[in-house]
Structures are given as structure tokens and as C-alpha cells.
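Batch manifest, entry 17 of 40.
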Amino acid sequence: MSQPPPRTPEEKLAEAKEQLRLPRIVVICGSTRFMTEMTEADLRETGAGRIVLKPGFDMRSPHGLWSDPAEAAALRARLGALHRAKIRLADEVLVVGARIGDSTRAEITYARSLGKPVRFTHPEADPDA
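Output type: C-alpha cells
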């Protein structure tokens, strides 16, 4: 008798989230220019009973953590990897903002390649619409 194929890590994660009865997890993507709008989206999504993941801070604002250009470049790379991990963990993506830049476009492409549903606060901004 043949064995069923091993489950993927994604399938195992989905099963674990179901067993834990976790609410849907939504990750907010978009330019940090729209941090105020991201905070508003966080309020709405949390109020609707979803777990929300989003960028933790805006590197456009001055801070000692990214005042050195070399450290800032390394931090940007780590944050990019962290955000992709948030996308993998999430059940869906909410793109915030009226404009989509290259980084957000790459996040949308990545999310869709994983089969994640992608919603937009401004549907006209969807690069694939």
C-alpha cells in the first residue's frame, strides 16, 4: 500500500491554526508613507476579529537604529525577510494605499504566488486589475 504524500509545511501550518481555532490572520502591506492608513486598517481588521500583522515602524522617520547607512541597509534587508515571513504566516493580505511601489508590488506577487487572497483599500491600485 502506498503512503500518502507528506504534508507541506504550509498544510501543517493551516492545520495547526485550525486546531488552535485561531482567527484569520491578515498582513497589511503597502508603503510606509501610508502608516496612518495602516493604523486605521489595523483598527478595522482587529475590530472585525482578525489578527493583524503589519510593518512595525517607518524607516522614513529619523531614529538611531537606522542612522548609519550601512546599518540601515542591513536592517532593510532583515525587515524585507521578516515581512515575507508575515505574508507566509497570514491567511490573507490587505494592501493599503492609493499607490503601489516596487516593494509592495513584489509583496503582492509573492503573496499571490503562495495562493494568498489579496485585498486592497483602493482596488484601483491593484497592479493586476
